[in-house]
Amino acid sequence: VQLVESGGGLVQPGGSLRLSCTVSGFTISSSAMSWYRQAPGRERELVARISSAGDITNTADAVKGRFTISRDNAKNTVLLQMNSLKPEDTAVYSCSSTWRFRRYWGQGTQVTVSS
Length: 115
Hints:
The protein is mainly β. 0% of the residues lie in helices and 53% in strands. It contains no helices and 11 strands. The strands form 2 sheets. Strands 2, 4, 5, 6, 9, 10 and 11 form a 7-stranded mixed sheet that branches. Strands 1-3-8-7 form a 4-stranded antiparallel sheet, with no helix packed on it. It is globular and about 40 Å long.
């Protein structure tokens, strides 16, 4: 099983990025998917979660209205659209899912918001 994130980078405040997480080893259509982030010196926090059917999403208050999680089951991929980025969004972003009672994590992608 592998979860591979991409799409991170350096962006100016107010800018946008779209993160992708492509999964191999299991079909995500029956699994909820989540994005987490961890900034230096801080604990990892849940950013957004999407149900297996894609009909229920939850986002953290800090990113509500700016970030949108979605999924493309045909491509076995989950996306995180991030708009109106702020310096405090700087962190390593990782996707995660549970399959067969085991939690899997990607290696993470760095997002840096700075002018």
